[in-house]
Amino acid sequence: MLAKTSPFGSCVVVPDLRGCGNTSRPPHPSDYLITNLMEDVHPNNARRLVFVGHGLGGLIGFCFVTLHEDLVYRMIVINSYHPLAFVKQLRRSLIQMMMSWYTVAFRVPSLPEQYMTIKDFAFFDYILWDSSTEEEVNATKYVYSQPGALTGVLSYYRAFNHDSEQFMKLKYHKIRVPTLIMWSEKDRYLTTPIAEFNREHLKTSSVVYYPKGGHWLMRQCADSVNNHIIEFAYTGNIIYNESVTQSQVPLTEYSCAESPKPSKKS
Q1: What is the CATH number of the domain that holds 180?
Q2: How many structural domains compose the chain?
Q3: pTM: predicted TM-score of the whole model, two decimal places
Q4: Is residue 83 domain-resident?
Q5: What does the record list as coiled-coil region(s) (predicted)?
Q6: Residue 51 phi/psi, 5° resolution?
Q7: What's the CA gap between 112 and 104, in Å, rounded?
Q8: pLDDT tens per residue across span 84-103
Q9: CA dihedral sign, ordered 181, 183, 188, 190
């Protein structure tokens, strides 16, 4: 994405969230509450901020825009969710509850760290096999083999042990920031109805569905995702390309065909 946007004269800021990668790792789980995380993405003198986030990054984006709508020009989220949209689907879908079981398991002290290190950090082979090269997976294992690295990431989940209602305390309203949602229907962690539930909290929004895209869409369909980001960020337009089928990841179960509607109703 950085290479794609640089010719357009944009200033692209890609912060590593606290506890992730080689960034600082605050020691206490309460340091990872959403009110603290939003401080990490607060812009410095941005005139036309376009917020782009995937997964946890998109969740932070929804919360940040809720409180700082005047600072954001447009927002793009990739397989992510507004807190209330996720709660709505979690309450109505047994499948979503099963997909989200790990968020509770990760709140337990110590055991998750021990589990992730088994068989040379095989946990990362499992979650990254469909989006990363062997070299990238090995690099990820190296980063998270450093002292305290795994605990830093798990603190995002353990923060709920200190305030289980942290997302319910925000003053939600209908967000006026134009938003593009890109959604993979073969996500292993999120069910497709969340995409439409997100729109209930947005005044102006559109969804690009990828019926055969996986959780790591920005890696699996990098060209398609980058093109949408650039087009929407600069013009606010969305151009669907239903003929694009080649995935950047050589796996037959994934493709990058796009659609304005989900492939099936839930």
Answers
A1: 3.40.50.1820
A2: 1
A3: 0.91
A4: yes
A5: none
A6: -90, 125
A7: 11
A8: 999 999 999 999 999 999 99
A9: positive
Domain extent for 123 = 2-235
Listing DSSP states for the chain in one string gives: -HHHHGGGT-----PPPTTSTTS---SSGGGGSHHHHHHHT--SS-SSEEEEEETHHHHHHHHHHHH-GGGEEEEEEES---HHHHHHHHHH-HHHHHHTHHHHHTTSSSHHHHHHTHHHHHHHHHHHTTT--HHHHHHHHHHHTSTTHHHHHHHHHHGGGT-TTGGGGS----B-S-EEEEEETT-SS--THHHHHHHTTBSSEEEEEETT--S-HHHHTHHHHHHHHHHHHHH------TT----SS--TT-----BSS-SS--
What sign for the dihedral angle of Cα 149, 153, 157, 162?
A: positive
